[in-house]
Amino acid sequence: MTGSLLARFLLRRSPPPQSQFIFQRGISQSAAERTKDNVAAEPPVLPPFDYVPPSYSGPSGDHVLAKRREYLSPSIMHFYKSPLNIVEGKKQYLFDENGRRYVDAFGGIATVCCGHCHPDVVSAIVDQTKKLQHSTVLYLNHAVADFAEALAGKLPGDLKVAFFTNSGTEANELAMMIARLYTGCHDIISIRNSYHGNAGGTMGATAQSIWKFNVVQSGVHHAVNPDPYRGLFGSDGAKYARDVQEIINFGTSGNVAAFISEAIQGVGGIVELVTDRELKTPAKVETLHVMDQMKELGVLIGKGGYYGNVFRITPPLCFSKEDADFVVDAMDYTLSRM
Length: 338
Ligand SMILES: Cc1ncc(COP(=O)(O)O)c(C=O)c1O
Description:
Blueprint: H1 3-8, E1 10-11, H2 20-24, H3 61-71, E2 86-90, E3 93-96, E4 101-104, H4 119-131, H5 142-154, H6 168-183, E5 188-191, H7 200-205, E6 220-223, H8 237-251, E7 258-259, E8 273-276, E9 281-282, H9 284-297, E10 299-300, E11 302-304, E12 310-312, H10 321-335
Parallel strand pairs: 4-10, 5-6, 5-7
Antiparallel strand pairs: 1-8, 2-3, 3-4, 8-9, 11-12
Bound molecules: pyridoxal-5'-phosphate.
């Protein structure tokens, strides 16, 4: 990577386990440690994949975009300067309208954890849909009970009862409701910079202004985010814990229904890109630029963070070591040319 760029474009913070590969591959190295020899001359090439999609004859991306603008809510946004028209998916890869293949390093977030169009998943869906497409819990059917039993067999401890919902928002709404009913308390403690969903209760628990509307959101108190990089108390865990206790003591009746926290703040982001190490200036424009360039190389990643300066890399489980190496090479190649 060229020194001048790297000096400006710094990847900071202690690497969490899932981003070790980025650091190991040298993106966080200081400019002085890098030499011209490290810079790859040729763009990296996607790992081979034994599948060619049938040619696509549906509407073009421009057509779809125009239709979305006319018939869908303007709140729906899209990634990339030139939006992608994705028409097919297979395992860890997606194909656009021109048959171009991309490695999906983003879609593994809940929706395609076992990859796109996994044949076992597809055939289970097709088989069930042919027999019975929808029913109500007021009638019996073995499928949902079998699934709950199978899940219980894999979960630890007392986690033996399932309550199925359609989304993360619904799951968290339900969890908050159950906690409030069970404890008889209304107050819930959440953490700043968190994201828990966008319905009434979960928007209250969410603590980023960009994901909140100005509507009544009662009974959630937001504790200081224990963030070693930007957090008020740095890495002093005891101080963050004391903040939670103070909220309970001085902001509630002394009892709370629940404490809700993500294990890792996915939307809030954990490894920031900054353009100035001292000022911690968010590299917002640069993050968008890298995403666009990576797309051109055949890699799809997401972005997040309150300042829009965090990459969200959440590949499906069938992502291989070759894919991971390719993604890192593509990022290295992109950063070295900025
Ligand atoms: C941590 C977390 N909780 C809840 C949600 C909401 O899930 P959904 O979009 O399925 O409603 C998300 C979605 O990104 C999330 O990241």
